[in-house]
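Session log. Operator J.P. requested a structure for one protein chain; no other inputs attached. Running the standard single-chain path with C-alpha cell output.
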Amino acid sequence: MAQLVVYPSQDGYMRAGTDAHFSNARDAGSADIKYTSADTIAVGLSKASASPIYRFYRAYLYFDTSSLPDSGITVTSATLQLYQTGVYSIAYGGIDVFLMDGQPTYPSTTLALSDFDRTFYEVGLGDPINVVSGASGYTPLILSQKGIDAINVTGTTKFCLMSGRDLGYTIPWVGMYTEFYSVEEGGSYRPVLTINYANDPTVTTQAADNETSSSARGNGNITNLGDSSVTAHGMIYSIGADPVNLATAKGTTDEGAAGVTGTFTSTMSGLSVSTTYQCRAYATNSTGTGYGGAVEFTTLAPAAEFTVRTNNASSVADTTATANGTIIEDAGYSITEHGFVYKLGGDPGIPADPTTAEAYTKEGAGVEGAYTSGLTGLTASSTYHIRAYAKSTDGGGQIAYGEPVIFRTGTAASTTLYSSTSDGRILAAGGLGDWDAVHDATTGELDATSDEMGIGVRYITGIGGNAVRIWRGYFYFDTSGIPADATIISAILSLYIKTDSTFNAYAWSLVIQAGTSSTYPHDPLVAGDYLYTQYSGDYGSLAQTSFSAGSYNAIPLSNTSIIQKGGATKMCVRGSMDINDSSGPTDSQHDVTVYTAEKGTVYRPKLVVNYVLPGVIPNYPQINIGDVWKSTDTVAINIGNEWKEVVEMKINIGDTWKDLTT
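Structure written below.
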C-alpha cells in the first residue's frame, strides 16, 4: 500500500451579493469578488446590515495529484481535512459543508468569477461535514467512491466547497457562515488531501494462437503481483470490440490464483466461426485488477470451404455507401474476381454470374481478408440488400456468396443558420513599435452591440497612439437542431463585407479558427476572449483577392469538425497576418468591415450546413432461435429461394390482423 499527502497548489473563495431577494445571489452566474491570497477560505451565507445585504460564499481547492501513477493502481480511500478557525458563531445545529465536483471544466485553471455558478457543480463526493459554533481544528471529510473517481491521476484535482443551506432554499440570517484556513496559512493549518492506494497486478497480452472455428488460446504474462496475492487470472474477450474490463467483456476465463509472476495460457472456447474477437490478459488481487493491451484474432471457417462474409455497410449517406466484406477462406483457390451484388428492396440472390445482378461491383483479383467497394447512385431513404462475393476459375469455376445484409440510405438535409447577437469584435491597439504587445494582449476593447465589426490588421505611421490595430471577430450559431447522428457533408460561412480597407498589404486571408476548449469564446463575449492562444486551426479561409465588398462572401469550411451537432457552434475569425504574427510593411492595411447580426436579416452572418440523416432500419419483434428469444435488427423471409425483408408483420387474432411490430 502507498499513500500520497498533498496540499493545495492554489485555493481561494468568492462572494456574490445582492440587496434584492437572496436567491439572486445564490443563483448568480458570476461572483462579485474573489480572494485567492487570503489566509482563510469562506463557506456559507450571511445577511448584513450594509450593502450587499445577502451574501453567498463558496470556496475552491486545487490539488496537484499528477504524482500518482497514471495506471496500475486502485485508490482505496481518500480524506480531505479542513482546519476550521473557530472564530464565527454559527446557528444552532451548525451548517453542513459539501464537497462539490465540477471537473474537468470547473473551477477554471485559474479561478474566475464565472466559476461561482452553482449549476456547474454536483454533490456526492463525500458525506458533508457539520461545522458548529466555536469549533476549531481539523475536520475530516471522507471521500465517497464518486469522490475517489474524481481524483485526476494525471493532473490537477479540483473541488468546490458549498454550504448545505446554500444548496437549499433557506433565507440567510446571522450564523450560517464559517471559515477554514487556506494554504497561505501554511504549516499544520492548511487543507490536506490524503490518498491511499494499492498497486494492482501488472500484465501483458501476447498474440493469440491455436485458432480453430470455435476456440483460440490466449497468452499472457504476469510481470508483477502488485500489493497482494493474485486470486484470479486469465483472459477477457469480446466480439469485434475491445473488452476493456471484466465488467464489460462478453466472455472470460479464470485460471485461478497465481503465486508467482510469469507467462500463462488460457483457452477461450465456445466462440463463433469466422468471427473477429479482441482479448486482454488480466490478473486480480485483493484491491484491483490489472489488464494487458488488447489483441485481435479471428476464428476460422470450416476447413477447406470457400467462404465469404458480408459485413455491415459503413459511411452510409443519402445516395452513397461503402460495402464491406471479408474473404474468410479461399480453400486454395486463386480469387479472380470479388465484389458485391445488391438490390433495392430485396435480396439480390446468388446469381451464377454476379454481373447479371440488378446492381454489382467488381474489384478484380483478391486474397483472403477484408475488402470494400464504394456504392453510388443509390436512392435516398431506401432499403438495400447486399451480398459479398468472390469468384475463381479453379475447380471448374467456383463462386462464394455471403449472407445478405440490409442497410438503409439516409436523407439529405440542409439548414441555414444566422449568427446570434452575441457576435462582436475585440480590438487591441498601440503605438508603432507595440506590435508584440498588441498581438499578445490578453484583453481588448469589446464591441458586441454594433451592427458592424472590423476584422484584420493595420500598421500605419502618423496616427499617434493607434499605429498598430488588430481586430478579431467572433460568431455564434445555434446548431442544436442538427441531430447528433447526422453526418455533416459540407458547411459555408458567409460574411457580408461592407468595406475592404486593404492597401499596401501582403497577400492575406480571413481565417476561421475554433476555441481550444468549449469555454472560448465565452457566450456572451468578454474582453478576455481576445487572447490568441485560446484559438487554433484553419477551418476555412478566404483570400483577400476574392473579397467582394457590398455583398456576401462565402467561406467554405475545409474542416467541418468545428460544427457542434446538438449544441452551439462558436468561431473566431482573424486575419492571416494576425495568425502568422506578421505585421507586414509600415503603412499597410489588411482589414475588412463586416456586418453583424444586429444589422438584420439580409446582412447578418449566416452558416449553411449540409448533412445526411442516417437511414433507420425498422424495429422488429424478437424471434425464437434454439428455444431462446433473440432481438433482430432485420427480419427476412425466403420466398421462391429469394430472401425478402419483412416490412410488415401481422398476426390474425379474432378475424383481425394485428401489427406485430408494435
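Operator note: The mean pLDDT is 90.
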